[in-house]
Amino acid sequence: MQCTPIQLSGTYVTLEPLTQEHLPEIQSAVADGELWKLFFTSVPSPENTQQWLDAALEMQHQQTAIPFAIREKASGKLVGSTRYFRMESANKRLEIGHTWYSQSVQRTGINTECKLLLLTHAFEVFKCIAVEFRTDYFNRRSQSAIERLGAKRDGILRNHTITSDGRIRDTVVYSILEHEWPGVKKNLQYMQSKYAI
């Protein structure tokens, strides 16, 4: 499992390797819905986007993550970001996270296709035995979205992290295991077929 930049392409989106050249488009994407105002997310504000981008690329440089820019094929616009991280080759597992979408494409099926692309690559190319998702206890929308994917709730890490504003965050942990993947894949394909993006 190498932390080498890769591109994943589906019917509606392309997950491009995140680069410094994406900065202006990332700033536009986060401005769509002012996502940084949600206290339980880690979406950068337009003025903090460079710092966020540098941190994402540093994770890749340290061989712990593969960050992506999410491009909607129909409009050609960059509409969010996601990444593989906590990549553990020895344990054949990784986490999918740091995910956010512009407000205009939320609830459109783009998340479903992104997760289908990421999970397919994780289980079928990286040969993972488990893929993890984590979210803030207060981010109910994210928890619902993760559960719709077919992930199972493992538990809550209490007093898990201290956020940039000093709040102590409880983290909800979910996972999909290797033997669950065929059923989850079928469910995601069915969900995707219901959307007309």
List keywords for this structure.
globular; 8-stranded mixed β-sheet; 8 strands; alpha+beta; Aminopeptidase; 197 residues
Account of the 3D structure:
- Helix 3 packs antiparallel against helix 5 (181-194).
- It is globular and about 45 Å long.
- It has a single domain (8-194), classed as Gcn5-related N-acetyltransferase (GNAT) (Aminopeptidase).
- The protein starts with 7 loop residues before the first strand and ends with a helix.
- The protein is built from 5 helices and 8 strands.
- A hairpin with a 5-residue loop joins strand 3 (65-72) and strand 4 (78-88).
- It has an 8-stranded mixed sheet with strand order 1-2-3-4-5-6-8-7, with helices on both faces.
- The protein has helices at 23-31, 49-61, 110-124, 140-149, 181-194, and strands at 8-9, 13-17, 65-72, 78-88, 93-101, 130-136, 152-162, 168-177.
- The protein is α+β, with helices and mostly antiparallel strands and 197 residues long.
* Total domains: 1
Order of secondary-structure elements: EEHHEEEHEHEEH
> What percent of residues adopt helix (DSSP H or I)?
25-40%
Overall 3D shape: globular
Structural class: alpha+beta
- Walk across the major sheet and give the strand order: 1-2-3-4-5-6-8-7
Summarize, please.
With 197 residues, the protein is an alpha+beta fold. Helices cover 31% and strands 32% of the residues.
Could you outline the blueprint of secondary structure elements for this entry?
Blueprint: E1 8-9, E2 13-17, H1 23-31, H2 49-61, E3 65-72, E4 78-88, E5 93-101, H3 110-124, E6 130-136, H4 140-149, E7 152-162, E8 168-177, H5 181-194
Parallel strand pairs: 5-6
Antiparallel strand pairs: 1-2, 2-3, 3-4, 4-5, 6-8, 7-8
Helix pairs in contact: 3-5
